[in-house]
Amino acid sequence: MQTPSPATPPKVTGGADLKAERDRFVAMSFCWADFLLEVDLEERIVFAGGPWQGITGKTTDELKGVPLLDLVHDEDVELMRSLLGVARRQGRIEDVDIRFKGRGQMQLPIGFAGYFLEDLGNHYFLAMRMSRQPGGGITPKGREKKAGSNLYDAKSFADVLGGKLKAGAEDSHLTLINIPGMAELKARLGDDDQAELDKVLGTYLRANSVDGDSAAELDAGKYTIVHGDDINVGHLETQLADVAKKFDPEHQDLEVLAATMEVDSQNISEEDLANGLLYAINQFKEQGDKFNIKDLSTNLSSLVNDAANKVSTFKTTVANMAFNLVYHPIVDVMTGEVHHYEALTRFEEGISPYEIITMAEQTGLIPGFDMAVVEKGLEFLNTIPRNSPMSIAINISGQSVASDWYVNKLHNLLKDNAWAKGRMVFEITESSKMEDLDAANNFIQRLRKDGYPVCLDDFGAGAASFSYLMRLEVDVVKLDGPVVKDAQKARRGKALFESMATLCKNLGIETIAEMVDNKAGLDFVRKCGIDYAQGYLFGKPNADVKKFKMADHVHLFPNPSFTKGGGW
């Protein structure tokens, strides 16, 4: 349960009012607290209130002059010291659990909150209460299961990070932290100790951040914090390593790697800075455990700034529709007839579409881009005679499927262009994972009901493919190119590939194989029971569909039949 905040700190000007204000603070704190401590700048107890004798064996008078850290369990001394540092910098502490020493060998988990008040003699005022189990009583040993680390995730962190860095200007820094052995350590722990480890690590990181709340867990063993000049990053590395070792039943030394990024936050808008940081953080997440974080941080420093500029440029590109679509035929493996064309994005020469689209997904800009592609595709189809059966496939990121803005705008756009029904197919890509499959299936069924077939792209590329197939009712699946290539090489590849084709056929779903670049590949997918093929065998993507002369490939098909159309 979250620890309540103590009373709002008093505002005083000094003199005779000090004692009265202190008494008022004590009285209000005891509305929810079991204990109260007032501690001076030397971290010695000035005043104690509550049943301390039953806990420590000392009366409240006997506690006066005792160092606060003498009451804290040895393993949490550094944590308490860090929290006091936060209070000095930020003025307050809240929602933190610390283990205190009890009589005998008892460890007493105590939640506390408090203030550091310059107006009251530069003293700490700590209101504290016992952490209780559901049935009441005190846990004499071991650790209670905690509610989590209280750290941001990568996306949430990036959303607020740009503003905090800009607000702090030159005094704020971003530090990346990697603990390569964290996954192995957690595998050696039970659920309760894993939760407690997350809680303690999270508290250390928050305690060292600029406002006690600017820290994130990006991935297993990967963290980042925003902090000021007063934080010793080397000392933080040591603290985290000590915490990990104390939790480890094997007491192994874990390596902790930290490096600080220098980010130019003054010359970039807050929104673009946040997007650039999110992109850079995702690059950090995708790195393996073994890498040189010092080099990475240097590279990421420029990457953040470069990414922020790329984000700004990308948004301008989308707004101005300053990109092109090229088309690639999907053909029937038996007849060679073009079924439809996939629309592929091309930017200016030298810019990788994959990298740009990945960046758009990682920075949350992909729904706007996906919508621009639909609009561009409609423009192209509008140049084709309405009596032509030609159809095109438009890609949709899994992230866009989850965007209410995109879903609503797409359906309104299709409603306004009813003539496109039957001439546009939608391919949902797996590059950005879908989490709410029920909502995704509702979106898909609405498209199908309105006359727009749906294809599940990248099938077989990830473990999620089969769960998608179970939950998402689609018309066709496109087998990922590398899967098609690998199936031709592996000894058991043909059997596995055939089983995927058979599964889809039994479900009433048609199949497309990517990367069919030669006759052997076409023969292979045909023998495996695949319905359609796409690849360089039939030509490279081109803005002019007339460039594809399927009649030149008549010798490749057992039952050649060529038309200018296509579509379900």
Question: Would you give an account of this structure?
Answer:
The protein is α/β, with parallel strands linked by helices. It folds into 3 domains: 114 residues, 2-Layer Sandwich (Beta-Lactamase); 160 residues, Alpha-Beta Plaits, CATH 3.30.70; 167 residues, EAL domain (TIM Barrel, Alpha-Beta Barrel). It contains 18 helices and 17 strands. The strands form 3 sheets. Strands 10-11-12-13-14-15-16-17 form an 8-stranded mixed beta barrel, surrounded by 6 helices. β13, α14 and β14 form a beta-alpha-beta unit. α16 packs across α17. It starts with 16 loop residues before the first helix and ends in a 35-residue tail after the last strand.
Blueprint of the fold:
Layout: H1 17-29, E1 35-39, E2 45-49, H2 52-56, H3 77-90, E3 92-101, E4 107-117, E5 123-130, H4 154-168, E6 173-178, H5 182-187, H6 191-208, E7 215-219, E8 222-227, H7 233-247, E9 257-261, H8 270-286, H9 293-319, E10 324-332, E11 338-346, H10 353-362, H11 366-381, E12 392-397, H12 398-401, H13 404-416, E13 424-429, H14 437-449, E14 454-459, H15 464-471, E15 476-479, H16 481-489, H17 493-506, E16 510-513, H18 519-527, E17 532-533
Helix pairs in contact: 3-6, 4-8, 6-7, 8-9, 11-13, 16-17
